[in-house]
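Teaching note: in complex prediction, the entire set of molecules is handled at once rather than each chain in isolation. The prompt given to students was simply: 'Predict the structure of this complex.' The entities are:
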Amino acid sequence: MENTVPDVKILSEFRAILGPKGYTDEVEMIAPWLTDWRGRFTGAAPALLSPANTDEVAAVVKLAAKHRISLVPQGGNSGMVAGATPDKSGEQVILSLRRMNKITVMDAEDGLICCDAGVILQNLHEAAAAVGRRFPLTLGGKGSATVGGLISTNAGGTQVLRHGTMRMLVAGLEAVLPDGSIYNAMAPLKKDNRGYDLKQLLIGAEGTVGIVTQAVLHTVPALIDRCVAWAGVESPAQAYDLLLFMQRHGRDRLEGFEILPQRALNAVTTHIAGTRPPLDTAHRWHALMEFVQDEPGQIPPNELATQLLEKAMHENLLGNATIASSDAQAEAFWKIRDSIAEAERAAGPALQHDISVPVSAMARFIEDESPVIESTYPGTKTLAFGHLGDGNIHFHVKAPDGVDVTSWYAGDGKAITSHVYNRVRAYGGSLSAEHGIGQAKIDEFERLADPARLAALRAIKNALDPLGIMNPGKLVPLA
Amino acid sequence: MENTVPDVKILSEFRAILGPKGYTDEVEMIAPWLTDWRGRFTGAAPALLSPANTDEVAAVVKLAAKHRISLVPQGGNSGMVAGATPDKSGEQVILSLRRMNKITVMDAEDGLICCDAGVILQNLHEAAAAVGRRFPLTLGGKGSATVGGLISTNAGGTQVLRHGTMRMLVAGLEAVLPDGSIYNAMAPLKKDNRGYDLKQLLIGAEGTVGIVTQAVLHTVPALIDRCVAWAGVESPAQAYDLLLFMQRHGRDRLEGFEILPQRALNAVTTHIAGTRPPLDTAHRWHALMEFVQDEPGQIPPNELATQLLEKAMHENLLGNATIASSDAQAEAFWKIRDSIAEAERAAGPALQHDISVPVSAMARFIEDESPVIESTYPGTKTLAFGHLGDGNIHFHVKAPDGVDVTSWYAGDGKAITSHVYNRVRAYGGSLSAEHGIGQAKIDEFERLADPARLAALRAIKNALDPLGIMNPGKLVPLA
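The expected output is the structure of the full assembly:
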């Protein structure tokens, strides 16, 4: 079964639904949306559709189903796995949700906010703050990432430790299904046992079984204060013990716990202007912690962090530690963490793996697997950093100095990536912790997926999207 | 397509897989498992299969698929909607998970516990307590309800306000899919973005797309102390304001918030020996609250409750309040709440509706809908009580005194139930908040379900269980 290339007549039908504001086939208007955020995938599209509301999305999908036109839903185009990029065939039409950007605070007391799919994360943050609340999910692309994309990729970020991924923050949802029908589950029900939870199915589905058009989102109370701390530790294992200690004593006052090796700190202080090591002592590994206060009467985060770090030092859970003495210093600590990828790029080409294993196994994974890779592929350097508290590490492998980059990526690079994912599977882990599958990981996903699981995913995809028009080529490797 | 009646030869193949301990076709051994908990549905089954482990479950399912034998998975047989009861055809075989009852504490520090599907909730509570932890979900049937059943019905209970339903407590899961393949997602990954979340699909699926065989469950720290408080209020609306106040100031120290009308209190103190009103003042409505401490150094729950109740009284959010002065008194307060159904039975026949609407709409629902029913059907009395904090009320309607019960159930009773569910739908709510659909609600579910949603559920059911052998007749109304 092949899907149809949209011809001029079909395109004119889309234009008739959407009007001039919602339709373009001008090459220059479409071009910026054809390449993924990381610049590794570039596709083609005969038109860019920008519906103004759910009814228009439904009409577009109905028409697409009628003519068997493939649709590629797109929000901020800031995904990491090219899940919103069309293929090169020129058959796939981009369906942008960006014009749908209304935010409605439903009930500030309940903390629920209703958003169109195209609402940009930064704007959601501001809308929540305006009513004394906080939307706790945040990530680097917040200036462009949209609510629909965040839901469709079950986005993560640095606040997951306490607040969970996007899945935990969705109270209600509306989507257009592959036949153009509208699935409305916007009522924020805390309990609902009417069968399979379609909402859960649509979260993280990358637009392959429906297009998220609206959502009701949970918020949390606004922060009163925070404290960012930095600790030097010996190893990932010691960092894990420190994490458990902080969770046991800090409970939900601990909102973030990130780790990085000395090698990452060196790369940042070498390549990123204005950064310097938070500690004047040398350590093999480092942990960045954020403690928060969002309830009046709680012990201030600074005081809590001081107490806990002193106690942790006394229990030999860290080598040295410091607390940011100002908001500027807190931002400087976070800047080190957030600049690792940029610093690494400046240092040379590297493979990037967004992986997860059970939290309790992550330290062992890093300690056991890094030397194997470095000795099997001489000259490579591993760099594991990120969300230890979520069992989610960005496991990067830097190419040896002086190699021909293109041939290295195609040869050893490919082998290393397969090796990393093989090991992740041996730990029961995931080759995609927070970025999704998209186009970038679909082959490796197919290679490594449990056959029972893969068969179930294919069955669901084919059952809900029998024409195969919803973001084909993404997420689910079809036979 | 009709499924097969298992003949002697097929039954002997099941026996060969399971051995004498795992197989019976003796009428007296099967009889206790043919009627649902509420005694409203009785079926027939030619055999009761009791596998000892996942491999045996897989072999049973494979054999069932080969011969097209329908399987009815069953745990403690304590569900409320006859989801684990075979139909009357005599074609359906019961697959009991009760022999699979191992509990393994994986990592006390992580708080994760691994359970076979047949583990009884009470035993899970004890296993968690033995390592200084708590499994926070609890309900009346805890002495018989099993982990597999709790997952397959996404069970609720009185602690959902703080800890969520079963869905929130499952970290990992294993299931046998309808073709007999084993889906293993036991690794407790905090982040995993590899496509549709099958774990979420299996939770609440009532065994219609797979049989849950094992799970890894979250626990929470053991309680240090608790305080149970009782308040008299004017109305559900005032109770809702009180709830918001307690959530705002008590945060996650508030673990339960239940409401009941004076009529329910009267029924309990009249019909249940040893109960008496907690307050000596008269109130139209009552709220039962539980405050907990599970972190050292927190203000004791008694003190917290006293402060908050005084403040709430000062703000006119309640009429009068009292705090249980001993654990025995705390139990006495809870006994009132837990005896409502029993007291009501003693008072006469009634319809029971387990419904949810958005939390903020529940007070209005109760206040607007109750008088309509009582005036439309003279002599009926409504009784709304339960989990206000979850937007989940048990909305009962007592039959007029002296009616012929059988004909009332078939006539006005049926009309009233349809009316209640119609109104629930108008509020965007659910006709099954925590009990599920099973056999008991499948017709009303089909009548009221959003067609887009129903079509999706059918497509998923047919795709994953094309032979229709997994608990047929439950949850998903097939065309």
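Point out the following to students. The longest helix of chain B spans residues 405-426. Chain B has four domains: 8-99, 103-221, 225-340, 348-426.
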